[in-house]
Amino acid sequence: MRSDTSESYARNCVPGSIENAKVNGTIVLCENKDPDYSGFGKVLEMQYNGGVGVIFIDDLKRRVASTFKDFPAVVISSKDATEILSYINSTKNPVATILATVATPKYKPAPEIAYFSARGIAAVVKSHNPSFGPSEIKSAIMTTASQLNNDKSPITTHSGATATPFDYGAGEMSPTAPLQPGLVYETTTVDYLNFLCYHGYNTNTIKLIAKSIPPNFACPNNSTPDLISDINYPSISAKLNKKQSRNVATGDCNSIVHLINKHR
Known about the structure:
Its main location: secreted. Belongs to the peptidase S8 family. GO terms for molecular function: serine-type endopeptidase activity. The chain is an alpha/beta fold. The protein contains 9 helices and 5 strands, in the order H-H-E-H-E-E-H-H-H-H-H-H-E-E. Among the domains are: 82 residues, 3-Layer(bba) Sandwich (Glucose Oxidase, domain 1); 44 residues, no CATH class.
């Protein structure tokens, strides 16, 4: 640690906080609790000072893939750090090796919700609409999402091409619009089960793959692929032939969307 810096800065490997001589030729163990400095910035600092590797202690960042380019760096949990610190304090010359990244097939438990996942908006919608169930909350978020950027133009991809629902899903969600979404779609368990029926699965097969189904459920007698679009879901798809158009009601008797196939 440099004499003109704090211990906290040094423990977090803040640029300029550690003497170059102590970094040169070593693998440095860093806490990663200071949000003002990125992990990548710390890596660059260690690399500039002759470090050969960095071990970050960060319970959040260790759960997502980190990118440090070609510099040897790894992110560990605070639990793992306890063992490493115990080892460091037990010897005058601690040594370490950072191995190449390898895939871990069939890792358990998986999946898990990433720390940066947006949970807040659903909770806010529920607090303003206590009667909404999960599907109605989802509907409110989806139907009020925007497909336009802040130039009021269609959202584009990183290459500049116009994005599609396959890129952005329902669009960019709004933090306030879902609170008063107007029409919402309630998708029930039976809706999803019927969806499978319309795809050609019979009742016995569905009972094998579904975790739980309502008592006495049975596929409708008229189950055909033509009914697949009947699922009460807040999205729409339409297959149109050339020069063909369709009117689609949106739930409000005064609101009709006119779909036209522009491809010729």
